[in-house]
Amino acid sequence: MPKMNIYVSDDLKTRMDEVESANWSAVAQRAFERELQMRKEVHMDNITTVADRLKASREDWFEGHIPAWKEAGATWAGTVAEYAALLALEARVEQHTIDGVEAALVAKIACGDDGLRWDDITEFWQRAGGSENDGYPAYDFVAAWVEGALEVFEQAKEHMD
Predict the structure, then answer these.
(1) CA 122/CA 146 separation, integer angstroms
(2) Distance (Å, rounded) from C-alpha 138 to C-alpha 129?
(3) What is the pLDDT of residues 83-97, one digit of tens each?
(4) Crossing angle of helices 118-128/47-79, nearest 10°?
(5) 3-state SS class at 80
(6) Contact of 84 with 113, CB cutoff 8 Å
(7) Would you give the distance in Å from CA 131 to the centre of its chain?
(8) What is the pLDDT, as a whole number, of residue 43?
(9) CA 73 to CA 54: how far, in whole Å?
(10) Could you write out the DSSP letters of every residue in 96-161?
(11) Predicted pLDDT of residue 130
(12) d(Cα 155, Cα 152) in Å, to the nearest integer?
């Protein structure tokens, strides 16, 4: 087994000498192994494994939240929304003109007001359940919210004729 020298402070060496029957070589080897393992786990050769793990975690997180986000949109459609707002929202989605289901545009359609200010849009999303951080909600929330709202609209249209 190869030998190596390591340097420690005088204070550390004094405290080490006070411990009886310690195998400092074994302690150091374990510390070296932990450090090497940690560095290996985040090494770029292993980044695809990290990415795959995070992707699965993200998907699990979204799967757990999407039903609540859809329910928020459904609640808005069922309790607050005006027919014109739902019709405009449906038309935008059908025409694919909501680029990435942009939160500000959805809020403007939902409120029927193109002149909404930042504060108005933020307030709308806070009331709609999608703004946890004083700003626009995440894309995935808005997409699920719109889906929930339009599902209610479709069901309601079937009963309106």
Answers:
(1) 16
(2) 12
(3) 998 998 888 888 765
(4) 90
(5) coil
(6) no
(7) 13
(8) 62
(9) 28
(10) T-STT--HHHHHHHHHT-TT--HHHHHHHHHHHT--SSSSPPPHHHHHHHHHHHHHHHHHHHHHH-
(11) 62
(12) 5
What is the distance between the terminal CA atoms of the chain, rounded to a whole angstrom?
86
3-state class (DSSP) for residue 18: coil
Q: CA separation (Å) from 140 to 101, 102, 126?
A: 9, 10, 16
In terms of Cβ atoms closer than 10 Å to its own Cβ (0-12, 13-18, 19+), residue 62 is middle
Q: For all residues of the chain together, what is the average pLDDT?
A: 82
Residues in the chain: 161
Q: Which string of b and e fits 65-94 if b means at least 16 CB within 10 Å?
A: ebeebbebbbbbbeeebeeebbeebbebbe
Token look-up 């990415």 returns 51
pLDDT in tens, 80-131: 899 998 998 888 888 765 555 577 778 888 887 767 787 888 888 888 776 5
Torsion angle (degrees, nearest 10) of CA 15, 18, 22, 28: 10
